[in-house]
């Protein structure tokens, strides 16, 4: 089975689950590049970007 066939067989929720993980990796990499080093700060800031509330705000 090719990757495209595999993707076509996945539900929208499954694809969103993977998409959220990829998005979070980019956000975490970005936050580390800003010089933040404390895990508490990193966690709090990442939630500002990847939470459902943050996504809703972004799309409005």
UniProtKB/TrEMBL annotation:
Superkingdom, natural source: Bacteria
RNase III domain residues: 14-59
Keywords: rRNA processing
Gene3D superfamilies according to UniProt: Ribonuclease III domain (1.10.1520.10)
InterPro entries for this protein: RNase_III_dom, RNase_III_sf
Protein's UniProt name: RNase III domain-containing protein
Organism: Oenococcus alcoholitolerans
């Amino acid at each position: 089975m090719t990757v495209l066939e595999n993707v076509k067989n996945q539900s929208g929720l499954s694809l969103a689950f993977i998409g959220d993980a990829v998005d979070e990796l980019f956000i975490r990499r970005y936050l580390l590049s800003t010089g933040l080093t404390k895990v508490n700060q990193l966690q709090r800031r990442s939630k500002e970007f990847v939470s459902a509330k943050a996504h809703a705000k972004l799309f409005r």
